[in-house]
Amino acid sequence: MDVAFWILAVLLAVFYLYAGGKKVLQSQEQLRPMMGWVDRIPMPVVRGIGTLEVLGAAGLVLPPLTGIAPGLAVAAAIGFVLIQVGGIVVHVSRGEVRVIGLNIALLVLAAVAAWLGAARL
Predict the structure, then answer these.
(1) Which residues contact 99 (CB under 8 A, 6 or more apart)?
(2) Long-range contacts formed by 113-118: CB under 8 A, 24+ apart
């Protein structure tokens, strides 16, 4: 289970580091083609989501790697579940039900990472 956790944690961390970094660093115009929802959400909120994603990526990997507060990895994974719930709500409210597949997949992967992380404690 330890190997499964690390594979999942690294994959999620890379994804969220990339996605969160884009939200933090790019303008609304640059994000719009990939994330049409940025028109309906104030940019400070988009930046906040991106910051949480970057911090969550670090929290998923660094605590278990260093052995310092490894329970934070579980909290980070649960945070990713909540981010995806919010993403699904936004997409459904915009009538974009067909595009929630990635959100659902990320939600499931984050839930599995939380379970595997909790089993490691």
Answers:
(1) 91
(2) 113/5, 113/8, 113/9, 113/12, 113/60, 113/73, 113/77, 113/80, 114/74, 114/77, 114/78, 114/81, 116/1, 116/4, 116/5, 116/8, 117/5, 117/9, 117/64, 117/70, 117/73, 117/74, 117/77, 118/74
**What is the distance between the alpha carbons of residues 36 and 32, in angstroms, rounded to a whole number?**
5
Instruction: Quote the tokens at residue 81.
Output: 């579940």
- List, run by run, the mean pLDDT of 10-residue segments along the chain (121 residues): 93 98 96 92 96 98 95 97 96 93 97 95 83
**pTM for the complete prediction?**
0.93
Domain of 60, in residue numbers: 2-120
Q: Provide the number of structural domains found in the chain.
A: 1
Q: Provide the token pair at 8.
A: 């999942």
Contact 90/37 with Cβ under 8 angstroms? yes
Read off the tokens for 69.
């507060």
